[in-house]
Design a protein that fits this description.
By secondary structure, this protein is of the alpha/beta class. The chain folds into 2 domains: 212 residues, Rossmann fold, CATH 3.40.50; 144 residues, Response regulator (Rossmann fold, 3-Layer(aba) Sandwich). The protein has 12 helices and 14 strands. The strands form 3 sheets. It has a 7-stranded mixed beta sheet with strand order 7-6-8-9-10-13-14, sandwiched between helices. InterPro entries: BCAA_transport, Leu-bd, Leu_Ile_Val-bd, Peripla_BP_I.
């Protein structure tokens, strides 16, 4: 999720921005984050969720929705934000930039949201923030692309760790603890996959490791036999696979069928879901990855989250936990800033919130900087094998 959006998408984004700005000349203040908006005119404050609710990434969007809804339910049951209830507006970005621009524009122009949580994927987020930024709407995302740190959008914040933090940690572990020397890379052909691989290549050089193979696939692919055959012929010590859990599960199943018996690992926790184990079975046993969260952590925050999830019949997934933390941090900022765009933005920029994913603080680029832990699939569960430093 690190390369530029194509020309067509950029033109679409610019058109949408122009629409927002022109509408502001004739519409009420509800189309921007300044002053009073229709989201504040009643007894609620509207917050948008930009996420993939349909398509191959739909499960991630559902996990995010679950987490935000849990947080809002807790907040509203305790009186809301300065006496007003939080109301969630869901927009399906279908994991595409053009859809992301459309849904974010609608949420701002038609629904009057004061903030947006999402997207999950980087390319849609990069496109959408070109609309939310000029509209002065807070935007908390879960994209991994380094480009999200370079937008200059002071209303954009990232609630996950970045590849610049994840990748060196897992590469160092693989070098020092697993003693690997030759690695094969298999990554999705997206901004996310490419930038993660580029970061891993830099780390490999620093650690004296070699990438013997560089294979790609497209999201939604089902057959990886060609890539795995090439990798097997090179006899690597490990395979770094960068992708989402549905494809990671298929890749490792097909690797096992092909007789490729090496250590698989990933740079981040995109596969941290029980679905990885459900779909992959024994094939994903021993998979290693860096993570910002341990769902088995014995903390009061985690206990409360799990209790809420159980009471509402919602799976306690990693992405739900991250979205929950994003919603809780956002609510704190909106409360302190009284839902004013500038005051809430400043409150979020200076927040120090203890979440279930650890402390939430942001640097000057709006990024989190916690160090990750290293996790592994062991006997059908996720186990911490190295604590964060």
């Amino acid at each position: 999720m690190g390369q530029s959006v194509n020309v067509f998408v950029k033109k679409t984004v610019l058109f949408m921005i122009l629409a927002v700005l022109l509408a502001g000349c004739s519409a009420t203040k509800s189309s921007s984050g300044n002053g009073s908006s229709k989201s504040e005119s009643g007894d609620s404050i509207k917050v948008g969720l930009q996420a993939p609710m349909t398509g191959d990434n739909a499960q991630y969007g559902q996990d995010m929705k679950n987490g935000v809804e849990l947080a809002f339910k807790k907040i509203n049951s305790e009186g809301g934000i300065n006496g007003k209830k939080l109301k969630l507006i869901v927009g399906d970005d279908k994991a595409t930039p053009t859809e992301a621009v459309a849904v974010v524009n609608k949420m701002i122009m038609n629904d009057g949201v004061k903030a947006i949580i999402g997207g999950y994927n980087s390319s849609p987020t990069l496109a959408a923030q070109d609309v939310s930024g000029p509209a002065q709407v807070l935007h908390l995302n879960m994209g991994a692309s380094p480009d999200l740190s370079k937008t200059g959008n002071k209303y954009l914040f990232r609630v996950i760790l970045t590849g610049s933090v994840y990748v060196p940690a897992v590469m160092k572990y693989m070098s020092e603890e697993k003693k690997v020397k030759k690695i094969a890379a298999l990554f999705e052909n997206t901004d996310y996959g490419i930038t993660m691989y580029e970061a891993a290549k830099t780390s490999a050089k620093d650690l004296g490791l070699e990438f013997a193979a560089t294979e790609k696939y497209n999201p939604g692919d089902k057959n990886f036999s060609a890539q795995l055959s090439k990798i097997k012929a090179l006899n690597p010590d490990a395979v770094m696979v960068v992708g989402l859990y549905n494809e990671v599960a298929l890749i490792e199943q097909q690797a096992k069928q092909a007789g490729l018996k090496v250590q698989f690992f990933s740079p981040d926790d995109s596969m941290y879901s029980k679905q990885l184990i459900t779909l992959g079975g024994e094939a994903v046993e021993n998979h290693i990855f860096a993570s910002m969260i341990d769902l088995n952590a014995d903390t009061e925050e985690m206990k409360e989250f799990k209790k809420l999830a159980e009471e509402n019949n919602i799976p306690a997934q990693a992405n739900s936990a991250i979205a929950y933390d994003a919603a809780m941090a956002l609510a704190k900022a909106l409360e302190e800033g009284k839902a004013d765009a500038e005051k809430s933005r400043d409150a979020l920029a200076n927040i120090d919130y203890k979440g279930i994913t650890g402390p939430i603080r942001f640097d000057k680029n709006g990024d989190r900087a916690n160090t990750p832990m290293i996790m592994q699939v062991q006997k059908g569960d996720f186990v911490v094998i190295k604590q964060s430093e």
